TrEMBL record:
Gene name tied to this protein: tyrS
Name the UniProt record assigns to this protein: Tyrosine--tRNA ligase
DNA repair among keywords: no
UniProt keyword list: Aminoacyl-tRNA synthetase, ATP-binding, Cytoplasm, Ligase, Nucleotide-binding, Protein biosynthesis, RNA-binding
Record-linked CDD domains: TyrRS_core
Classification via SUPFAM superfamilies: Alpha-L RNA-binding motif, Nucleotidylyl transferase
Similarity comment: Belongs to the class-I aminoacyl-tRNA synthetase family. TyrS type 1 subfamily.
Motif, 'HIGH' region: chain positions: 44-53
GO CC terms: cytosol
Motif ('KMSKS' region): 236-240
Chain residues that bind L-tyrosine: 39, 176, 180
Amino acid sequence: MSEFESDLLQLLSERGHLHQITDAGALDALAMKEVVTGYVGFDPTAPSLHIGNLASIMLLKRLQQAGHRPIVIMGGGTAKVGDPSGRDETRTMLTDEKLAGNIASIKGSFEQILRFDDSETGALLINNDDWLNELGYIELLRDVGPHFTINRMLTFDSVKLRLDREQPLTFLEFNYMIMQAYDYLVLNREYGCRLQLGGSDQWGNIVNGIELCRRIDGKEVYGVTAPLITRADGAKMGKSVDGAVWLNEAQLPAYDFWQYWRNTDDRDVGRFLRLFTDLPLDEIARLEQLEGAAINDAKIVLANEVTAMVRGADAARSAEATAAQTFAGGGAGEDLPTLTLGEEEMSLPAVLTAIGFTRSNGEAKRKIAEGAVKLDGEATRDPGAMIALAEGAEIKISLGKKRHGLLVR
């Protein structure tokens, strides 16, 4: 029996999305009474979001599924400052052109997962640069600055962590929390937005926005955070041994995206099915009870469901078929990462790095020496090996048991 009455908070709770709520009783009552507009902010610091961001996107998806309206805020303005939360160093400054390009590239991920239409619950995508860029700095300081005290700002984890580690925190970054709070004020005024959602590291920023809306306009608004998603091995969600697990195809092929989920730790399968899929809870309960080799069936379901949501059903089917051919049949499916070689010989370490299996030739040489690299199923331990192919030929290259690709000419 859920402790909540509204569909919204029941859904967030039973799926594992809830960590903190500013006023659970009031938000629960509001969500039963009317369509609630809620938002999550995403700073476009790269051309793709990664699966660490997927937990926040799912908050918006659940909001829409429960009959409410999600707003995606692209932080074209705040990204010019940089969020100090969870960072030990200052972000690289991005140009307007770079930010615009990133936003255009990221937009497709939201269109794949959320429903954008003219209905009462249709999602909106808005760039906070639309209002932040128009603000005069003195005007902002006069209107909003008095509602923030340096004493309180210094108590927030995002600030304390940087200072405790004696890492520089620039005055520019220090303004980030003021700007994000101002976003909430604008969204409440312009769109009737009464809920901000985000990861647990955003709690301080969310509380600032709630207090600003109350102090300036006397409006009651709310905040919800989701728990930081970590894997059973303690690693932060969003990273693999080979780097970030990107949502966009251009940054990570669908097969590699599918494989990341297929390789989920047994202990994480049930939790990830609840968080990142729409499968019924009783079906998830059945799948997470599978043991031994049978748990792999649940992992394939997880990989298919998440890949279909993020990349489309065709991408999921193709990735599964490629995996079946590669692992079960010993063949090479068409979705495997492919590197086209020219006429000149190429060193094996350079090949491994070029196809994306290693981050450097030095790492590649270590993997080769460990016997982790195979060419057409045969292990090679020669870091000096040179690869050359005849016209039209192909070789399957593998790193360990889970990374496979094709070399073609």
